[in-house]
Amino acid sequence: MSNYDVIVLGAGPAGYVCAIRAAQLGQKTAIIDKEWLGGVCLNVGCIPSKSLLKSAEIAYLLRERGKEFGFSFDNLKLDYGSAVKRSRQVSDRLTKGVGFLMRKNKVDVHLGTARLVAKDSVTVTAEDGKATTLRAKHIVIATGASVAVPPAWKIDGQKIVTYREAILQERLPASVAIIGAGAIGVEFATVWQGYGAQVTVVEMLDRLMPNEDEEISQELRKAFEKRGIVCLPAHKVTSLEATGQGARLKIEGAGKTQTLEVEQVLVATGFKPNSAGLGLAEAGVRLSDRGMVEVDERMATNVPGIWAIGDVTGKLMLAHVGSAMGIVCAENIAGADTHTLNYVMLPRGTFSHPQVASFGLTESQARAQGLPVKVGRFPFQPNGKALGMGETAGWAKILIDDRYGEILAAHLIGPEVTELLPELTLAQMMEMTAAEIARNVHIHPTLSEVLMEAAHAAEGHPVHI
Q1: Is 278 in the same domain as 140?
Q2: How do residues 292-342 score in pLDDT, each as one tens digit?
Q3: Which of 238, 269, 300 is the last residue of a domain?
Q4: According to DSSP H, which parts of 27-126 are helical?
Q5: Among this protein's residues, is 411 annotated catalytic?
Q6: 143 and 286 fall within a common domain
Q7: What is the number of alpha carbons within 13 Å of residue 305 lying toward its C-beta?
Q8: Mean pLDDT across the chain, nearest whole number?
């Protein structure tokens, strides 16, 4: 039996970051994963999807906007399979990088299926059936989440797929229906439409990206429909089945029922925590009704010595949030200085075209809470850099407290807005005001000037509009 200070179950962005930080703080650390280092994010999620989105951006530019930029082709050929292969190379490089980081920080890696057999012991069963027991003072659950699929829908991996099959396939579907208009749904819509596929997005709630600000949803739908993506919010899928040629789904909405016949269907309806089969209930760990591991602000469960981080807690299912939780958890375990995460104020990003980035409450949520909200807004249309890029859709919207000028939230849609958001999240964390953002001199011409202008607008004196 091997003894450790910390054992981390799950090697995704939450788990491997936690393991590194624990090792940095002098803890003898091990990490266990049943499949791969880097988890879903590095292997079949965040990283390969961004590679595909870049390829799709270029494909769309070549197909649809060549005349605008002064070039043309007699016989343009797009190879979607090559784009997928490039995405795999990117993922493989980063996965190997995580392996290097484990060795550098002297974190022991165990591959296999883990199960708690006591509050301080874990059994790891390798692929060949060999079982090893590891013991630790602290065990961190970082097993992530998996796709939640309605029981009546059969995923066959060919005609009806989840993100995992979709991101690995080298063929481009000619027509596709995407069920669910969250981040995964709208990102795949961007990729496939960029290469010329006919895309329909079906969302049960009344708008695309229903967790974002209402105006974001409206702007994204307008941009999608301009690209030819069919958007069907407030539509419910009542049946889904594979056919000889592809897949058939029946949907209800707008007072009627219709049938769609497509080559492929992507099910992107949400996630459920990977908490089953770990021995958590037997160890006395408290779970929510939906199977999420309940933790306090330190990332501790109700059982001393057992901790949980990332998607399995259901706090905010984003890779960077999991990593932040992992650092806080490791620091609490080691008794080091740390801080408390405010999940409402953590950044959210979606890499559709246009991109979406936000933090804080939506405008309607803030007003419903009775907050004295003042809104500053500035569009990309008059921004010199955006005009030069040919990417003028969207805007930046900053919400401030009308009494004190403190930043309450920001909602951005437009070119590269995921890169712009950190200025605002840092300002909010450091309790800066919109006036200070406005006074901060921004390089001209840059997209970041939109933030400065939105801050000026929040203060009542926009310059360039």
Answers
A1: yes
A2: 999 999 999 999 999 999 999 999 999 999 999 999 999 999 999 999 999
A3: 269
A4: 39-44, 46-64, 66-69, 80-104
A5: no
A6: yes
A7: 16
A8: 97
Q: Which residues pair with 141 in a beta bridge?
A: 9, 308
Nearest alpha carbon to residue 414 among 201, 216, 276: 216
Which domain-ending residue is among 293, 312, 343? 343
Residue numbers of the domain that contains 220: 160-269
Please state the domain count of the chain.
Answer: 3
Residue 464 lies in a domain: no
Rounded-to-integer distance, Cα 330 and Cα 312, Å: 17
83 and 10 housed in the same domain:
yes
Backbone φ and ψ for 111, nearest 5 degrees, come out as -100, 125
What local confidence, expressed as pLDDT, does residue 73 receive? Answer: 86
Taking a C-beta distance cutoff of 8 angstroms, is the pair 314, 151 a contact? no
Kindly indicate the confidence band of residue 131, based on its pLDDT and cuts at 50, 70 and 90. very high
Side-chain half-sphere CA neighbours of 287 within 13 A: 19
**pLDDT band at residue 2 under the 50/70/90 scheme:** confident
Please indicate, yes or no, whether residues 401 and 445 belong to a single structural domain of this protein: yes
Of 348, 403, 327, 272, give the one whose Cα is nearest residue 140. Answer: 327
Give Cα separations from 54 to 61, 67, 111, 352, 427 (angstroms).
11, 20, 32, 10, 29
- The whole-model pTM stands at 0.97
> pLDDT, tens digit, for every residue of 148-202?
999 999 999 999 999 999 999 999 999 999 999 999 999 999 999 999 999 999 9
Q: Which of 339, 353, 444, 456 is catalytic?
A: 444
